[in-house]
Design brief:
The chain is mainly α. It contains 18 helices and 2 strands. The protein has helices at about 10-30, 35-45, 50-55, 60-65, 70-75, 80-95, 110-130, 130-140, 145-175, 180-205, 220-225, 230-250, 255-260, 265-295, 295-315, 325-350, 355-390, 400-420, and strands at about 390-395, 395. A two-stranded antiparallel ribbon has the order 1-2. The radius of gyration is 21 Å and the shape is globular.
Length: about 425
């Protein structure tokens, strides 16, 4: 079916787009509760060290390895909707189960092991079908307006997410102050279960991908490799994402404990700061979408990375005496995500045949995920060394997160230069 023959304004297409937008919103709610200060609060309850908290928080990058399985079996999937619902819903409910772990009558070491097993299993189910759902949901979107739709979808999630994160953050703080933190975990789990059910309902309202019902030949592995890793432009996008995730996972996963321990922010205050960041991303998301539709995904990524570079530069100077700078960092970093998050996915449409989109996106995330996790491991080791030496490096008083931010800045600068040299002038496809 050609692009011109598709009626994107039809009722079923509009319904599917709305359902997909809401599904992303509920999925975002769940992701908020398994990231940053929320997950750090849970892990610290288990007696987890700062370094291990950061590494566990970075499991999301390692979990992208699970997408490699989708490369191998994607051609065998006949029912997109059924496959997506089974794996995605199971994963979302597993995330909700994380907050039940404090109620298990076992030692903290065993709790940590169960936590790691559960979160890895949840990420497996989630990322096994994430690109399948992305392609499925975007199949109802006009390719000429894909970046704009992505930004609108993101704005919906961000606005609602601000309310959810602030409300839960405040409630958990109050329960913690009264010495009843376990009830805060129970509240989190109940909320996540509600979000999971809502997510499932939205998936049910999305029109099935009828093309997947047809019996088509599964592309050979050699054909997939030729159209992905054999495509120079695609390889450039993989390296670009590796550099970006190197910047992200070197620092971000370690800030949850830093905000609470060294910077003395409560969970409610952290969520208020996150809301400021999300508000900035919300206000500029549409502009990034229009800019990317007009100038291309590469230019959109470059513009966002300039903002990210400023964010990490600011965070190099964030310390207890200048703790307010974390607000500037969070604002700038979130604004940068308005241009990197969706464009890093959409860029595959520009350089890879749409028939191999799912496989291309999975391979890219897998490779970049491994690289990001290795960066997190090395960064965690660096944090341990600096803390063991009384927050000094080579005799210079410094917090580990400041050094991590400096390394992230170098990664962003490298990504900007690399994208300019390899991708900025390449011809793109409209699919």
């Amino acid at each position: 079916m050609s692009l011109n023959s598709v009626n994107y304004s039809s009722k079923e297409y509009k319904t599917s787009r709305r359902a997909y937008t809401l599904e992303c919103m509920f999925e975002y709610f769940v992701s908020l509760l398994v990231a940053d200060a929320f997950i750090a609060k849970l892990l610290k309850y288990f007696g987890t060290s700062d370094a291990l908290c950061g590494i566990i928080s970075s499991f999301i990058s390692l979990s992208f390895m699970f997408q490699i399985f989708s490369v191998l079996i994607m051609g065998r999937i006949r029912n997109t909707k059924k496959t997506a619902i089974i794996f995605h819903t199971a994963a979302q409910f597993l995330f909700a189960c994380l907050y039940f772990i404090p109620f298990l009558q076992i030692d903290n070491g065993t709790r940590q092991i169960i936590f790691i097993i559960c979160i890895l299993a949840a990420y497996f189910g989630n990322y096994f079908v994430t690109n399948l759902i992305y392609k499925w949901g975007n199949s109802f979107v006009d390719p000429h307006k894909r970046a704009s739709f992505s930004s609108t979808k993101e704005m919906v999630s961000l606005f609602a997410g601000m309310i959810v994160s602030l409300g839960l953050g405040h409630a958990i703080d109050k329960l913690d102050e009264s010495g009843d933190l376990t009830h805060g975990f129970l509240l989190s789990s109940v909320c996540m279960l509600v979000f999971c059910v809502s997510d499932l309902v939205c998936l049910l309202f999305i029109k099935n991908d009828e093309k997947k019902e047809e019996k088509t030949d599964m592309p050979k592995l050699s054909e997939i490799m030729k159209n992905t890793l054999g495509n120079k432009n695609y390889v450039h996008t993989v390296i670009l994402k590796c550099l970006w995730w190197g910047a992200t996972y070197t620092t971000i996963g370690f800030l949850g404990t830093y905000k609470q321990v060294e910077l003395f922010y409560t969970l409610g205050m952290i969520q208020l700061i996150n809301i400021i960041g999300c508000a900035g991303r919300f206000l500029l998301s549409k502009l990034f979408g229009k800019f990317s539709d007009k100038h291309g995904f590469v230019r959109g990524i470059q513009l966002a990375m300039l903002v990210a570079a400023a964010a990490f530069a600011v965070n190099m100077f964030t310390a207890p005496k200048t703790r307010w700078l974390i607000i500037v960092f969070v604002l700038l970093y979130n604004i940068s995500l308005a241009g990197t998050f969706q464009n890093m996915i959409n860029i595959s449409y520009a350089f890879v045949d749409v028939r191999y989109f799912v496989q291309a996106a999975a391979l890219k995330d897998c490779i970049a995920g491994v690289f990001g996790f290795l960066c997190a491991l090395l960064s965690g080791r660096l944090l341990s060394v600096i803390q063991e030496n009384g927050n000094t490096l080579f005799g210079i008083p410094v917090y580990a997160q400041q050094v991590q931010s400096a390394l992230s800045l170098l990664f962003v600068i490298a990504a900007l230069i690399y994208s300019q040299v390899t991708l900025s002038h390449k011809k793109t496809m409209l699919q």
